[in-house]
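If your schedule permits, I should be very grateful for your opinion on a structural question. Thank you for your consideration; the sequence and its tokens are set out here:

===
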Amino acid sequence: MELEANCPLKRIETVIHLIVECLSKLKEYVLKRGFKNTDEEIHFFKHQKPVIVAKLIYYNTIYKIEAKKPYGTKPIRKHLNKELKELNRFFDNNLVFYKYYRSNNPFLDDKYFLRGKLDIQLCVDTGYFQSDMTFSTSHDYKVAKIIANDLIQVYIEDQLYNKFQKDKSKTPKKLKWTGSKVALIELIYALHFQKVFENGNKDIREIARYFESVFGIDLGNFYQTFLELRNRKMNRTKFLDALREELIQRMGEQDEK
């Protein structure tokens, strides 16, 4: 369902019903089975249940956004920006817990993610008191909300960009590859071995020629370059390692904002 391009309201309704049904079955299973120890309970309420509940929050929010969407470019933009402000308000109001969760700290997990461990001083949401405490902790819903808000922000920003970007009719300007040719060849081979193009049915030569065309670059004898990469005694995937390290660092910086 998620792979479909659009999000019509009827499809969202179907997804919401599916998630509610799954949560009901999960609750029945968990309450019947129980947990082996507190570590397993914490893991469930901190990492497993929130991922599913986050989907429910996400689709329910998208449903309301789409159902209330007005007509006209300016009203729609205003409507979407208002939703973004709501996300920022939640972030500001829960900054301390955001930092705790994003840093993957464990020292308050026994208070946040064990049932029956209510501590009013830890800023418990009012909704918790109306929840089923046999299947909820004081902060598992808040984790789900954090995960969902990330997804909602991506959705809204994508809507704003796709619907309101200027000069849509113009052909996008070609990007210039300013990294080294060796780095690009390393990337091409990594993508090829992952079979991300045509399920692995494209020859490496076709992929390389495509990249040459897209970036307007001559990779020369890329077979020879790859052979040299293989023969490196150290740091055989220098560029890919740097990509991974930079991405993780940037993600960490974004989490702290």
Q: What stands out?
A: The chain has ten helices and no strands. The chain has two domains: 9-164, 181-256. The chain has a mean pLDDT of 86.
